Amino acid sequence: MSAIAMETQIVANSSQAASIETTRPFFSIRDMHAYYGESYIVQGVSLDVRQGEILALLGRNGAGKTSTLRTIARTDTPQLRQGEIWLDGQPIHQMKSFEAARAGIQLVPEDRRIIAGLTVEENITLAKVAPGNGWDLDQIYQSFPRLAERRKQEGVTLSGGEQQMLAIARALARDLKLLLLDEPYEGLAPVIVHEIERILHSIKPMGITTIIVEQNAVAALKLADRAVILDTGEVAFAGTAKEVLDNTELRHEYLAI
């Protein structure tokens, strides 16, 4: 190969690499398999999410939704035995849970885990101890006026909806890139659900990506940009949220709605 041809090939390869880099998904899972002991729960899940998108992760009870979130967050269970998890170029699958949190992944579990004995403000301040550039108290109180009004109240005495807001606020107080929400609407009044949806929409332009697991599938689909439906630990559908809303047969088969 001539020097000119070699140089041309190098430039082409560099351009191709740059193109791959710019089109790489912000968050992706590749062939993820996870187990509780010997119980095979997450069976080869793959998905991509762009930065700032909201993804609804849906399916019937036992489909593997919560297990998928917990595996992404690198919790002790379920155990990841195969596959890759990437966030903003970082190999999350190689990390412990505290390392994944430092990399920008924050899981808000179904039980919210508000710390008893601490006020609203103390719960948020404790979250801010972690390294990174999370929101300050002024930013949080501006977005969560209910929390500002109750800043000196013990966190566990808040209503269910207010506790959910506090749990999300704690995530925002950390260096947040990917927010994982497990059943955030459960037991909440519609007015509180709308307030949480407003908050989730407001953080999209900041580049914060959200994956929401929710039994209220219609509400989640109306909020989300895209949807992935799991069935017995495998991906049964991946596409836009509108495609699911418009497909009665798909919703009936996998979501019973």
Q: Can you give a write-up of this model?
A:
α4 (120-127) runs parallel beside α7 (160-172). A 6-stranded mixed sheet has the order 6-7-8-3-9-10, with helices on both faces. A 4-stranded antiparallel sheet has the order 2-1-4-5, covered by helices on one side. Helices cover 40% and strands 25% of the residues. By secondary structure, the protein is of the alpha/beta class. It starts with a helix and ends with a helix. The chain has helices at residues 3-23, 65-72, 97-102, 120-127, 137-143, 145-149, 160-172, 190-203, 217-223, 241-246, 248-255; strands at residues 27-36, 39-49, 54-58, 79-87, 90-91, 105-108, 178-182, 209-213, 226-231, 234-240. A hairpin with a 2-residue loop joins β9 (226-231) and β10. It is globular.
Compute the number of strand runs: 10
> Overall pLDDT, averaged?
92
Strand order within the widest beta sheet? 6-7-8-3-9-10
Radius of gyration: 20 Å
- Report how far apart the termini are: 62 Å
Range of helix content: 40-55%
Please describe the biggest sheet, giving its number of strands, its sense, and whether it closes into a barrel: 6 strands, mixed
Q: What is the tally of helical segments?
A: 11
* Shape verdict: globular
Helix-strand makeup class: alpha/beta
